[in-house]
Specification:
153 residues; alpha+beta; OB fold (Dihydrolipoamide Acetyltransferase, E2P); 2 domains; five-stranded mixed beta barrel
Length: 153
């Protein structure tokens, strides 16, 4: 009788561990599929960005690069880290704070011609904010001041 209850307990423990393993695998898979990495324009130009997955690109909106088509909802612009430039195409309404020479982050994927097709565009919300990755890329490029999230000169 004691052997039977011990055997039953081991089966329950094995089933509980199996269920925990399955739940962990499902949570990790969901996390992995929703994870979006950040790349600088230099990394995109150097081929470090994924070709078939969504990612974020950030930097400064290049001066004089914003062009609007189709009643203003289709926008082309270039984003730079002061070393390299990537063309971005976006269909939608841009945030109010989106301006040339200011920081922006776009989420989307690369097209075959190297253009970044954005599904979402974010602009910095004040003078002191920029994603840390974008600020670091601009520091390496020699940009200083509020545009990169540093102290005002």
């Amino acid at each position: 009788m004691a052997m039977k209850s011990r055997y039953r307990r081991l089966i329950w423990i094995a089933l509980a561990l199996g269920a925990l393993g399955i739940a962990t695998a499902l949570v990790l898979n969901a996390f992995k599929s929703n994870l979006v990495f950040f790349f600088t324009p230099s990394q995109v130009v150097n081929g470090e960005a994924p070709k078939s997955k969504q990612f974020r690109i950030g930097g400064l909106v290049e001066e004089g690069s914003v062009k609007r088509d189709g009643g203003g909802t289709t926008v082309q612009f270039r984003i730079t880290d002061l070393h390299n430039v990537v063309a971005v195409s976006y269909v939608g309404i841009l945030p109010d704070l989106f301006k040339e020479g200011k920081g922006a982050v776009a989420q989307g994927s690369l097209l075959a011609d190297g253009t970044f097709q954005a599904s979402n565009v974010l602009a910095k919300h004040d003078e002191n904010y920029m994603p840390p990755e974008a600020a670091e890329a601009l520091k390496r490029g020699g940009q200083t001041g509020p545009a990169m999230g540093g102290a005002k000169p």
